[in-house]
Amino acid sequence: MLQRFDDRNKDIVVNINGDLVHRDKAGISPFDSAVQGGDGVWEGLRLYSGRIFRLREHLSRLRNSARALAFESIPSDEEIVIEIRRTLTANEMTDGVHIRLTLTRGVKITSGMDPRLNTVGPTLIVLAEHKPPVYGSSGVTLITSSYRRAPADCLDQKIHSCNLIPSILAKIEANAAGADDALMLDTRGFVAETNATHVFVVIDGVICTSRTVACPEGITRAVVLEICSREGIPCEVRDITLSEIHSAAEVFCTGTMGEIVPVVEVDGRSVGCGETGAVTARISDLFSQLTATEGEHVV
What we know:
Order of helices and strands: EEHEEHHEEEHEEEEHEHEEEHE
CATH class of the largest domain: Alpha Beta
Shape: globular
């Protein structure tokens, strides 16, 4: 599913270390760590009626990821919120907005991977775009990728880093197969996530999702688990096999970019009746109720 360009984003300004610059003129140094080695962390935020949903949880994950990568300097939450607010205000944005928040290790004194070459502090990028949930309400199709999510002894997936090459390779496979996204397994053969979202399945009336051994601890994933606990919906966090995906009554994905999206086909096989199931619809409605009432006001 290819995202279409929104003309409202034609003249947006981007915030780079506090400087608000037109999107066509914005740029970072070729010596920046993100350019040199994908050495940065990121978060996706969504703005609803002037409020960012689960803002502090996102900032906490950003900070934890930066600490895990041994960033020596990390802006405070309030400093980041100020720059988010400045960016949204400059673009006159209040609703239906996705914010890509990136923090890199910063500019190096010369090219190279050694973090000791970074002496001037991090680079903070705030990119806000008019962007509704990226998946259609009719659901998405998946294929199983040949690429695997690395285990923690190779690369801890809880580090929300800018190095997205495995996901990009999986997405290339999905594009070639005519599917919307790719389902990715871990090295043990269990479901990890898709190239962009977390995965939930409905089996015998129970909602199941993967353990976070080979995928990040998603913010939207956590909200779904909270909803299940609050509403008394049976839910399990456990290893899930590919055969369980193929035979599940319902499958849905979660993420900030797409919110709650039903999966209607996996590997050419229809999921359930091939349309949004009752459990998925209920979770989606409950999630929408939360985003309509919760969040931190920023504009």
